[in-house]
Amino acid sequence: MSRAAQRGGATPSKRLAEDGDICPVCKSSRYLNPNMRFLVNPECYHKMCESCVDRIFSHGPAPCPIAGCRRTLRKPKFRKQTFEDIQVEREVDIRRRMSKTFNRREDDFVSLLAYNDYLEKVENFTWNLINGVDVEETEKTISAYAEENRREISRNESVAAQEAQSRKARAAEEQELTRLRREDARREDELERREKADMRRGIINKLATTDGDATSIAREGQRVVLKKSLARRAAIDKQRDNDPFAAGTENGDASSGIIFKGLKKRVAPTPEKPYDPFDGWSVENEYFVLQGQYDWDWLSQARTDIRHTAGGYDVNDYCARALCEAFSGFGVFIEDEVAGRNVGSAQSIATAAAAAVAGSERSDVNMDDVF
């Protein structure tokens, strides 16, 4: 037994195997070949070295050399592993594939509930594929959905590509605008430093050539520099206000090309009409006229009593309802209803008699005595 094993440590080959630095096909180790690269295939996610991939799959598709795996692999699908954990690699590939198939957007739905239900269904499919639950049934459902919504999927892919391109163009424009602003700020600082230097020289010259107060001369020079600086900044702000691209980019308006996405626009329903118990029929203008004032002691008291007016009671509404109830019966003409009822009953009796006669004629057609 080696000293490493006696000390309880693992051998270098065992440590390499545990770290995944030994190819399971040719048993080559990265310890002996530091430049060895491992590749995986998304069909089975078995890792093998690049030389084994070239040796086995250069002449066409071949079964996976790992014992127990019967998947047919192709060389173009082999790629370098991105994540250290192979399960994470597999999950990322599954989610990428699902996002390509189920690429409907929020603005394709009318309600937020429908969009959330769609996301939940997609997540259930993804969970089944990741954990191996009902894989065949899930694959059939995904294939049927992809075949049924082929045009919509391609349309959403083109829209996503256009949005990605526009975002890239906007990012480049924003970077260019930021660079221009940085240069403007640098030039402004440089100009301000020059003006301050000129102010100092002017103050020194005035102090040397005149007998004025040094404090007043310095204050006057600072006032001139400040005035020039304010005028320059006002001119820059005015130029930015007149620039539609800069204003749109700063404020996030539509001129910056930003697209706000959301649910589908709902068509506003027509406003409901107020409830009319008479369904448009009114007797107010035909049989009575509502007056503005009725000389009645009880109504006069109700108009001035705070116990009535505090609750919103309106005497005019009471009068209109009372008159409508009193005169609404004038619009019902019973003789017309009775006449219509009699006509309807006579027609029904005649129809029944004709049916009875027709039935009797059909029954008397065969007059032969069977006995």
Strand content range: under 5%
> How many E strands?
5
Which ranges are low-confidence, i.e. pLDDT below 50, for 5 or more consecutive residues? 1-10, 12-18, 245-260, 361-371
Biggest sheet: strands side by side, in what order?
A: 2-1-5
Nearest-integer average pLDDT: 76
Largest sheet: 3 strands, antiparallel
Note the run of SSEs as H and E: HHEEHEEEHHHHHHHHHHH
Task: Describe the structure in your own words.
Helix 4 (86-101) packs antiparallel against helix 5 (112-131) and helix 7 runs antiparallel to helix 8. This protein has helices spanning 3-6, 12-19, 50-57, 86-101, 112-131, 135-148, 150-209, 214-242, 244-251, 284-287, 297-304, 306-309, 315-327, 334-363, and strands spanning 38-40, 48-49, 62-63, 72-73, 79-80. The chain has 14 helices and 5 strands. By secondary structure, the chain is mainly α. The radius of gyration is 46 Å and the shape is flat. The strands form 2 sheets. It has a 3-stranded antiparallel sheet with strand order 2-1-5. A two-stranded antiparallel sheet has the order 3-4. The model is unreliable at 1-10, 12-18, 245-260 and 361-371 (pLDDT under 50).
